[in-house]
Amino acid sequence: MLDKSRIEALRNAPVAPALHLIDGVARPASDGGIMEVLSPLDGKPLTTMARGTAADAHAAIAAARRAFEDGCWSGLAPAARKAVLLRWATLIERDALELAVLGVRNNGTEIGMALKAEPLSAAATIRYYAEATDKIYGEIAPTGDDVLGLVHRAPVGVVGAIVPWNFPLMIGTWKLGPALAAGNTVVLKPAETASLTLLRLAELALEAGMPPGVFNVVLGEGAVVGEAMSLSPEIDVIVFTGSGGVGRRLLENAARSNLKRVYLELGGKSPNIVFADAPSLDEAVKVSANGIFRNAGQVCVAGSRLLVERSIHDAFVEKLAAFSATMKVGDPLDPASAAGAVNSLRQLEQNLRFVDEARAQGRKVVLGGRRILEETGGYFMEPTIITGVGPDDPIAQREVFGPVLAVIPFDTEEEVLRIANGTDYGLAAAVWTGSLSRAHRMVRAIRAGVVHVNTYGGSDLTVPLGGVKQSGNGHDKSLHAFDKYLDLKTAWIKL
Ligand code: NAD
């Protein structure tokens, strides 16, 4: 349960200026630069943070390299690493509400979702990978009698993690958990508009007993700090969640430097497909609305394209608009809010531009489409539903990353498959149908990392998350995530 009085007590708590955490020590930027951190709740300054330079990134990378080479972490018995990680998870839970409120003030996610999806999910993720630490075995190869072939699994070295602003702790720990459990060291670059909680997480790691230099945080702009990381010959792997444009840049920089491996979790334009034979249209309405409008649509797997069978299209859209209109958008620290603030003014303006463009093309905005609560100074936007959308419209092809739903009617299974697969993305999808055979056919035919059936967006740590096509490569979550952080090494021994 959310403790409203504690939330209110934390609402205006002063936030200390944020410094880098490099080699276990808080440090300002090497040239003393700072940047203002604005809260999306009221558009006012929340605190300042170090504006990192390339020199700061190099200092963090050097600390991570030294910590990796000296074996203070990779050389520990797995059970000893596990003990530190488990302590860390407990500390994150201890401070969960403080972390959640700080995160909301920094990035605007509604508190109910923030508490669950951020600190509590982060603690669960760290615990999941901690428990796996001493359960990863190598292999003995089935060779002839005169040799022994061993397959070791060795940490890759220094991991550079670059993460976005929508769920910094959840997405951050999807990388940190398996990377650190596997014995690597990490340099993390949080997003400019959601750095504060990840920094706090790194302080808690030190408190849990993680040696200095194992987990470093460099604050600042992606184009400076992230760029320096992606060009560094001392980083072995870059793991990234964010936009396709930056993903391309990371691949280019890997090619230009040391051919480091680059794993990308990128955006989506995920189709949510409702057939007329869905078991419950009311359930489909409720879940579809939540699947696009929670966290103001700033969810990578958001169901941003609603494909509805024509025979139920009008009735479904009417119900959806009626339900969505009841979703309270506003103060994200009020537990009654179903959606909080858009993360930044820039993102809000971008969302509104997409709506204006669709309107100018003659598409119909049947709900929302405007900024609201402007008098608060915060960045709030109504849940927005656009109908009459063509499959090739910009609003059906490009990721908005906001509370904007494009609705497209269809007539047949073949047609809807063509539309569903007809974008550059392939992250998530859903199919609502009462036919088991159709559900399985669709799961097979839709090109996406996850296909939900008769639900949208549910998941837990036991299953991988990753995209196909231009939604990325590699996977977060589940034991498969270790593949990014462990190298296979063969020993071929003549007997
Ligand atoms: P973004 O790509 O602008 O930024 C992501 C991170 O990259 C930030 O930390 C940023 O500082 C950094 N960055 C920016 N320029 C860089 C550069 N030149 N070199 C290195 N790093 C750089 O994305 P965003 O706006 O923060 O997040 C929104 C995007 O993330 C959306 O496209 C969304 O779909 C995607 N996303 C994907 C997933 C997933 O799991 N697939 C999850 C969440 C968000």
From TrEMBL:
GO molecular function: aldehyde dehydrogenase [NAD(P)+] activity
Domain of life: Bacteria
Keywords assigned: Oxidoreductase
All residue ranges annotated as the Aldehyde dehydrogenase domain in the record: 33-490
Record-linked InterPro entries: Ald_DH/histidinol_DH (IPR016161), Ald_DH_C (IPR016163), Ald_DH_CS_CYS (IPR016160), Ald_DH_CS_GLU (IPR029510), Ald_DH_N (IPR016162), Aldehyde_DH_dom (IPR015590)
Active site: E265
PROSITE patterns tied to this protein: ALDEHYDE_DEHYDR_CYS (PS00070), ALDEHYDE_DEHYDR_GLU (PS00687)
Pfam families cross-referenced by the UniProt entry: Aldedh
Family, as annotated: Belongs to the aldehyde dehydrogenase family.
Protein name (record): Aldehyde dehydrogenase family protein
